[in-house]
Structure formats: structure tokens, C-alpha cells
Amino acid sequence: MKIKKILLMLLICTLALGVIACENKQETIDTSGETDGKTKVVVGTSASYKPWAFQENDEVQGFEMDVWTEIAQRNNYELEFKLGQFSGLVGMLDAGEIDTVAHQMSITPEREEKYYFSEPYAYSFYDLFVSEASNYKSKEDLKGKKVGCWLGGNGEATLRQINDEYDLGFDIVTYDGASLENEVTIGRIAGLWQGEIKTKTIIEENDLAIRQINEKLVYEVNAYPFRKDEVGKKLSQEVAESINDMREDGTLEQLSIKWFGINTTKSVE
Fold first, then answer.
1. Superfamily of 38-121+224-260 according to CATH
2. 0.70 exceeded by the pTM?
3. Which of 45, 129, 224, 265 gives 118 a disulfide partner, CB atoms 3.0 to 4.6 angstroms apart?
4. pLDDT of residue 148
5. Beta-strand (E) ranges in 6-121?
6. How far is CA 262 from CA 84, 201, 255, in A?
7. Residue segments in the chain with a per-residue pLDDT below the cut of 50
8. Distance, CA of 210 to CA of 83 (rounded, Å)
9. Beta-bridge partner residues of 217
10. What is the CATH superfamily name and number for domain 124-220?
């Protein structure tokens, strides 16, 4: 009898261990970053850069959002937009809080060392803009004046570069989310340094008395950055392929016309 009881207890323990092992095995086969077979992609944006990316009536929208919605559909991604200040988006990418940045991100040699980039999806110039009522006709006319730009991005880096290169002595004022166009209109800054596509769109939409200096000193190529790991490499390749397909079938140009009134998706150089 004792032997039977011992054998019965051993059988119960064996079955219990088997159940636990099955449960543990079930837990380990869940794929990180996937939901219902879809790869989840978290896209960071400041949503304060109209018409590229902005928030209106609690909805994030703009050219970047439409491009990413199309990319997600073509790759069966589960898409999430995560908001943050523009100056903090790269930090969020580095920390793994987001998978990429949708904010007219420029390709630079320094960034290429750190990130995988998708195929370029937009091209544009940076330029100086001033009040129509002013007498400023060139960058030299703005010597020693307050010139605004976005904090922490390629805009700030290139403005400081031309400031030094041409010995302009700008009093550079950085912003993170404020309307540079409005700052020029009210006279808080003498000029702004920003992508011409974004600036001209805002000027036209709001009938602002602002004009372009039209020297076009910096040419910008925009693409989506991804961390240099296996996930980032895979995403960058998939997104690059989708952007190429969208360019070939006309989708990218259609979205550009929708938001900017011109095609900014082809290189002019």
C-alpha cells in the first residue's frame, strides 16, 4: 500500500511539473513587438510642425502621418504615434521609447554613423525668411540681428554653421514648438531659419506678411532613422522598400501635393 501511495504521489508531481513546463513554454514563444501577427512600430513626432506633423482636434495629422499610415498598411504594421518635444525625439529613439522619428529628419554624416536610414522621402532647402515690411534683402542685412530656429535639429546646426562661415554675428534664438512665423510677424525676431516648404505653406495658409530671402544656402534630404540593431535594420529595409514603391506608383507625390501643393518628394540636385 505504501509503495502504491508513493507511486501515486510521484505521478501527481510529474503531471504538475508538466503543466508548469507547458505554461512556461507558452510564455516564451510570444514575439516581442508583435500583436496579433502585426509588428508594432512606434513613431515619434512633436506634432507641432504643420503641415509635416501637427495635432488638431486631438488628432495627430499631416504629411508624415499620411506617409506612415501608408507604410503601415503595406507592411501590416500596428502603428502608434508618440508625442514629444522635438528636441527630445532623438533621445526617445536612443532610449528605445520609439522606433523612429517623423519630423522632417535630415540625413547628416553624424547621424548616418549612429542610425540606419530609410530611403529618402522628401527634399527641400533651408532658407531665411523676414517680415515683408523690413528692408532685409540678404543674409548680410541681418548681421547682428535676432534669428530664430528650431532647437536641437539640423536647422540649428546649419544656422550656426552659416553664421560662422559668413561671419554674420546672428543673435540665434532657439524654439521648441513655438511658431517661428508668428515670432517674425510680431517682431520678436528679425528673421527665421527653417525649411522653405514648411514656412511657405504656413505663410500662404495664414496670409502672413513674410517673404523669403531666397538664398537657399542648405539643401536637406529627409529620411526615417532607426537604431543600429537587428530590429532597426529590418525596419529600415522594409520602410525603404515601401517608400520606393510609393514613389514609383505615385502615392508619395500625391501626399506631397495634398499637404504642400507641390511635389517635394523628388531631388532637385
1. Periplasmic binding protein-like II (3.40.190.10)
2. yes
3. 224
4. 98
5. 34-35, 38-45, 48-49, 53-56, 59-61, 77-83, 100-101, 115-117
6. 28, 10, 10
7. 1-32
8. 29
9. none
10. Periplasmic binding protein-like II (3.40.190.10)
